Amino acid sequence: MNEILEYLILQSLKRFSISFSGKTSLWGCTRFSAPLPWVFELMDFRSFFCCTSRSDRKEKAKKQSTWRIFSLKELHAATNNFNYDNKLGEGGFGSVYWGQLWDGSQIAVKRLKVFSNKAEMEFAVEVEILARVRHKNLLSLRGYCAEGQERLIVYDYMPNLSLLSHLHGQHSSESLLDWSRRMTIAIGSAEGIVYLHNQATPHIIHRDVKASNVLLDSEFKAQVADFGFAKLIPDGATHVTTRVKGTLGYLAPEYAMLGKASESCDVYSFGILLLEIASGKKPIEKVNATTRRSITEWALPLVCEGKFSEIVDAKLKGEYVEQELKRVVVVGLICAHNQPEKRPTMIEVVELLKGEMKEKFVEIENDEMFRCGEARGCSDGVSFAADDSLDFVSEEKEGVEEIEKVVA
Fold it and tell me: Which residues form the Protein kinase domain (predicted)?
């Protein structure tokens, strides 16, 4: 895998007029000149290529590889030439199509919309990370295709689409997410992020945790997806400073304003996701013709007054476990605290959601942000003008358009 990725990046660099001299290895002693942002992005891959020998990488690949390289012809056949009727969703990256291979297995194919240095790098990042991670709550890579200017990633097909489609999209009226399923999704997706933060080597920041990136399998178990924005955290580093990418409503303030990406930024985004799961509300909702309100601005005063029953999604029709609802909402709000040091780690989030850290939960409940009349920490009274662009992040992906149909 690393040799293939090295080749892809090398070809991309050549295509964008980056000159090389010296040895042929991409990282060895090669000297090259390139725009600084590209150099910094490429440095993320150094650990992949120089930490192990070629023979070690091949041996590891033999033991772990469950992916393969697809031909463009094969994917055209599987998706009926990328027919519109096969489209599952669309975003800034391109489109996702349902497909069926010759053996009858179902796949999802992400087809990049624009061929560019940015798209090539996001493609390389996602393929490499997907090939490296192995966890029951992370979407599995089936393979990829890189022919000509086509860049496609092949995944396992998730028959229940995304969490977004059930909370706000075409399946929301069907009320398929009972409380038990919501808890399973919350804990499962949290465990997937724990793997990225603590067990992956090097550690990984997702940077785009949101409802559309939590996919649901046939049993409604969560699979965190879309690693195109992911960043690698070197050993010993507390954060990386980078260009801001993500989705409005999920961005931690220190990341949105200063570009400081850390594991705590994923915690913030996950806190917003927890509030979505509990309430069925969107991260930012229109209040009137001039303002929008964040989900934390709406939820925090209700929590301070103990009105949890007014927070829970009406589609549940009162069928939920009160103590679990309280845990989800309180943990969601502390995760979305404006001060990073106040946020728990994802390991703590999992334990809190499972009810295993009772003393820690009591400590969180007594935090000043939950005191009536002193509520602070999440929103600081910030509202969004209704005519503000939802694309204020310079390199943000567009919102996913969920296609209103179910692929057979």
Answer: 82-362
Do 376 and 305 lie in one domain? The reply is yes
CA angle, 163 then 139 then 161, to 5°:
30
Note the pLDDT tens digit of each residue in 279-333. Answer: 999 999 988 888 899 999 999 999 999 999 999 999 999 999 999 999 999 999 9
* DSSP run (H or E) holding 397: none
Q: What is the CATH number of the domain that holds 132?
A: 3.30.200.20
Give the catalytic positions in this structure.
208
d(CA 22, CA 30): 5
- pTM here? 0.79
Final residue in a domain of this structure, among 156, 189, 205 = 156
∠52-56-58 over CA atoms, to 5°? 120
Q: Is residue 407 part of a domain?
A: no
What is the domain range of residue 126? 68-156
Nearest to 181 by CA among 159, 168, 166: 166
| Count of structural domains within the chain | 3
Q: Is 342 annotated as a binding residue?
A: no
What gap in Å lies between CA 241 and CA 233, rounded to an integer? Answer: 11
